[in-house]
Design brief:
Layout (H helix, E strand, L loop, with lengths): L4 H4 L16 H9 L4 E5 L6 H12 L5 E5 L3 H9 L7 E6 L6 H17 L4 E7 L3 H8 L7 E5 L5 H15 L6 H7 L4 H14 L16 H25 L10 H11 L4 E3 H7 L4 H9 L2 H7 L2 H4 L2 E4 L4 E4 L2 H8 L3 H8 L10 E6 L5 H13 L4 E2 L5 H4 L4 H12 E8 L7 H10 L8 E6 L16 E3 L5 H30 L5
Parallel strand pairs: 1-4, 1-5, 2-3, 3-4, 9-10, 9-11, 11-12, 12-13
Antiparallel strand pairs: 6-8, 7-8
Helix pairs in contact: 2-3, 7-8, 8-9, 9-10, 10-11, 10-16, 11-16, 18-22, 20-21
């Protein structure tokens, strides 16, 4: 009987010739047979969750009583909303439940608790989601944890990937010459292994079990290159859309680009943003800006092309890749080249702040407006009011001194008639005055201030804030100039790095 390649190494649907029971399969069968008790199956996409559930249900003989719903289909969501009203619904599977609105998640959480307490014989709810999906469900009903089974699908061990590839070899009557490399490259994903194995066969003109070729003759580099080229058409626009965010800010710190990069290099399929920020303090301000103001949630929520590949849970602050092909694509991006292609300049940062503001309290309105406008451009700004929660219980002088000494690329000094009179501005200026010669101080002189005040600043280029002009217009002018200065510094830094980097022979 002729067996076709696309039926052996399948890139969608349930495998027929190459299904392999994952490590969690036995536990899954037992959980499915348990009456009433809810089941949450979580783990990365492409790891075999849905396929395993379907196979286990078929094995148990429950297929006729199963209803499958998807949280991604509008008509199915309407049905999901009604589930708590059913007293006898049979087995219901809700796939991708993590994308449901929080109010529906809460209703499902309460419903699962009710089914468990009633020890229902005729109803069972199975929820399938990405990593940590069960955590978000339990957060709505903490006592639910002891009333449901949670099965976590991890990356498959290499022997399981090898078993799957061997089944494919036997079905097609071939031998994969790069089998060990395919196992390693798949990083535990059945889906990626299927995709790579299929491309390996195509590269060697193997289309069925009668192709007459007993062993493939290609390299992983060739296969990977062809797969990436194919994936790029679909996933490059998605990666670019996420990396840029709502608008490309060349002078900014590229917070979305960094989040995408961290996802790509993570050994898992998801990242906890809070944990990563403790490892990358230089990115804390710019990323907290897009997280705390809801920009990250809005970016994904309003962009359908991103919803298929990335999920963000604003309760747990976990960002997850949903599509294994997208993860494979971003893991193989040349990141410096990608950042340059989409328009970013010098995206590696050694200092936690781009600008630190120094000003008298009487000029807080200008300082706050500069802070808001600059941070909206994804620029990291030290502004005392924004840091008050971090300064609590600390020695304030010890906290502030290094910021003005060295932890900001530029210190922006708002020089009004009040500036020289304040204790804290004197303290700050003592710590940054040595940086005048480093071209790191940007004075902004108030138009109604005596030019003799703070004479040191007059030796260097700065800007004037016209107190008689329209406030927002003056702020916009200053912000634009500061942004251009920062962009210029980014370009200079990138050029120096390029000159100092060893050249390829």
């Amino acid at each position: 009987m002729k067996i076709y390649l696309e039926d052996v190494f399948k890139t969608s649907g349930t495998p027929t010739h190459t299904f392999v029971k994952p490590v969690e399969y036995t536990k899954l069968v037992v959980a499915l047979r348990t009456k009433g008790r809810g089941l949450v199956v979580e783990g990365p996409s492409g790891i075999g969750k849905t396929t395993s559930i379907n196979k286990a249900i078929e094995e148990i003989g429950l297929l006729a009583s199963v209803t499958s719903l998807s949280a991604r289909k509008k008509e199915d969501v309407e049905m999901i909303k009604l589930l708590p009203e059913f007293s006898d619904m049979g087995i219901v599977i809700v796939d991708d439940f993590h994308v449901l609105p929080n109010d529906i998640k809460k209703d499902l959480s309460d419903f699962m608790k009710t089914l468990a307490d009633e020890d229902s014989e005729s109803s069972k709810l199975i929820l399938i989601g990405i990593n940590k999906a069960g955590d978000s469900l339990v957060s709505f009903s903490p006592d639910l944890n002891n009333r449901i089974d949670t099965i976590k699908f991890e990356a498959n061990p290499e022997e399981k990937i090898e078993e799957m590839l061997t089944l494919g070899e036997n079905a097609l009557n071939i031998e994969l010459n790069i089998k060990s490399e395919l196992i390693s490259e798949s990083k535990g994903s059945f889906h990626i292994a299927q995709m790579l194995a299929k491309e390996t066969c195509i590269s060697c003109d193997i289309i069925d079990n009668t192709s007459g070729i007993s062993i493939t003759d290609t390299s992983l580099e060739t296969v990977r290159s062809k797969v990436i080229q194919e994936l790029a058409r679909l996933f490059y626009p998605k990666a670019r859309a996420f990396a840029i965010g709502s608008k490309l800010r060349k002078e900014g710190r590229a917070p979305y680009l960094h989040l995408l990069h961290w996802l790509a290099i993570s050994p898992e399929w998801s990242i906890n943003i809070d944990e990563l920020l403790s490892q990358h303090p230089e990115m804390k301000l710019s990323i907290n800006q897009v997280v705390e103001k809801g920009y990250l949630t809005k970016l994904i929520g309003e962009n359908p092309m991103l919803q298929d590949v990335i999920h963000y849970d604003d309760h747990s602050n976990i960002l997850t890749v949903e599509d294994p092909k997208f993860l494979f694509f971003i893991r193989n991006i040349l990141w410096n080249k990608f950042a340059e292609q989409i328009g970013f300049i010098g995206v590696e940062f050694s200092k936690p702040y781009d600008f630190a503001l120094s000003f008298a309290g009487e000029n807080r309105d200008l300082a706050e407006s500069l802070f808001e406008n600059l941070t909206d451009r994804e620029i990291a700004v030290f502004y005392d009011k924004n840091e008050q929660h971090r300064i609590l219980a600390l020695n304030v002088e010890d906290y502030l001194a290094p910021i003005y000494n060295s932890e900001a690329d530029f210190v922006v000094v708002l020089i009004s008639s009040d500036y020289p009179k304040k204790i804290w501005t004197k303290f700050e200026s003592e710590h940054f005055k040595k940086r005048f010669g480093e071209n790191a101080i940007i004075p902004i002189w108030f138009s109604d201030t005596d030019s003799s005040l703070f004479d040191e600043s007059r030796k260097y280029g700065g800007m004037t804030f016209d107190v008689n002009a329209e406030f927002d217009t003056e702020v916009s002018k200053i912000v634009e100039m500061l942004s251009k200065k920062l962009e210029e510094k980014r370009r200079d830094r990138a050029k120096k790095k390029e000159v100092n980097s060893p050249q390829d022979e």
